[in-house]
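Tokens in:
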């Protein structure tokens, strides 16, 4: 019997062999790479294309990884880029929101996504 596995630890986006995004599973200590690029004039990090996902503390998802990457790129460190929306990510979002002249509530919503992707 042969067992075949794909390595998923370290800086991996979670893509499967067909280019589809694998379901997000939070793994403590695992971090994700950020491939910051512009597409259609908007910033992307290669984990999610969302422009309106509502994120707040206790959220874990590829959308959170995307937000963490974009925050770090903008100079607002969210701590580890691990996909978990914890206290450090919330603080980074609040700092970004304040600097962008947005409502400073620490939640990622459509207005924060719009400003973050510009």
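Residues out:
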């Amino acid at each position: 019997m042969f067992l075949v596995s794909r390595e998923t630890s370290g800086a991996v986006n979670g893509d499967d062999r067909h280019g589809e995004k694998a379901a997000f599973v939070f793994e403590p200590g695992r971090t994700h790479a950020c491939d910051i690029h512009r597409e259609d004039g908007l910033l992307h990090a290669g984990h999610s294309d969302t422009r309106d996902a509502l994120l707040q503390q206790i959220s874990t998802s590829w959308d959170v990884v995307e937000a963490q990457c974009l925050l770090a790129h903008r100079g607002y460190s969210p701590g580890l880029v691990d996909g978990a929306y914890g206290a450090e990510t919330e603080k980074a979002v609040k700092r970004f929101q304040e600097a962008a002249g947005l409502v400073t509530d620490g939640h990622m919503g459509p207005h924060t996504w719009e400003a973050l992707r510009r």
